[in-house]
What we know:
This protein is of the alpha+beta class. The protein is built from nine helices and ten strands.
Amino acid sequence: MPEGPEIKQAADKIAIAIVQQPLTGIFFAFEHLKPYEELLVGHQVTSVKPRGKALLTRFQNQISIYSHNQLYGKWVIRAAHSYPTTNRQLRLAMHTPKKSALLYSASDIEVLSDEQIATHPFLSRLGPDVLDETTTVEQVQERLLDKRFARRGLAGLLLDQQFLCGLGNYLRSEVLFVAGVHPTLRPVDCTFEQLAKLAMGAIAVSRQSYQTHGITNDLDIVATLKQQGCPRRAYRHFAFNREGQPCFICGTEILKVTLAGRRLYYCPTCQFQ
Length: 273
């Protein structure tokens, strides 16, 4: 499933293609959304913004399209009314005179008013977005200490969108590594310094991943490995997907475990329990 950085990158591409352009056509695959085609066509899209792993496409008439890619959804930007050759099913299409934004395979699409967004069962329960410029390290630290979260295992907590939204499985491993925190700990088990590093890492790693299209490793290490001709998979992450390979910091073999139902990678030396 795409994580926050990938969703924000998709939002950027969609916004460049269709924001402030009058929609010349719109298509919903689901029958219960068909009445909104006439309501929205001709209106301009004013913004396309991520909310964790979801997107809100807002129109000038105060209506928004909510979409969540889930596991298989994919946005494609094409020339107007140009469609790729694919076996995927088209779920949503928004056309301007020059570009089309096409959403394939997603099953979670709704049309919402501002009032419905405020009470939406998913959106209304989201925690602070790690990619939102208004989210601060102090806010994340406060949540780590909050009694709702402090005694929960970090391996599961970092996947919970009600705690922080935008984090996912590769970011979970990378945030824990950067913070030097063992994946079996809880916030209540951590020192103040570890909590500070977790809060800083949750924001810094996520934002670097957004800016670099998925690279969470130290950028100096990345530059060196690139010069050596290494493929992207060899330098992209500190720990994630690197089972059996030496840690970039200490040389210890990276381990893989399953925690909270998902694979997680860590260094037993840098993240000593």
